[in-house]
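Researcher: I'm preparing a figure for a lab meeting and need a structural model of a single chain. I don't have an experimental structure, so a prediction will have to do for now. The sequence is pasted below. Please return the structure as C-alpha cells so I can convert it later.
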Amino acid sequence: MSVGQTGAGLGHEGVVVLFRNTSAAACVLAGYPGVAALDATGRQVAQAERTPSGYLGGMETGSTTPRAVTLGPGATASALVEGTDVPEGTATSCPTYAALLVTPPTSTRSQRLTASLPGCSPLQVHPVVRGTTGTSPPS
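Model: Understood. Here is the structure written out cell by cell.
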C-alpha cells in the first residue's frame, strides 16, 4: 500500500490509497478498505465512513455495489479517502489528521500511511476500484 495522488475542490480534500499486487499470482480485492485517521502522536482519532462515492470520486454515479477488482502481478487498484476543510456549525477551525491507518478489504493487516487530511467533517472512504485514481472509469 502507498499514497497516490491528492486532490481538492470546493472545500473537499482527498487522497488516493494505492494497492499494488507484489506477488507472482493474481489476487482479488473487493469492497471497502478500513481507514482510521491518526493524529500527530499516532493515536486513532476517527474512523472513515464507507460510502460508494463522494464529491471527489469513488464508484460511478448510480452504482451502489462495489465490483471485485482482479489484480495481476504488478497491477494496482485504488480507493479514495476524502474529507472537508470547511468548519461546520459554530466551529472556527478543524483538526488535521497526520496519517491514515489502512486495512485492505478482507485483510486484518493494517499499514500506516503518511497523508494529511482535514477533519472538518467525517472522513469518507470509497470502495476499491481499477486503476490509480480512486474513481471508477466510465463503463
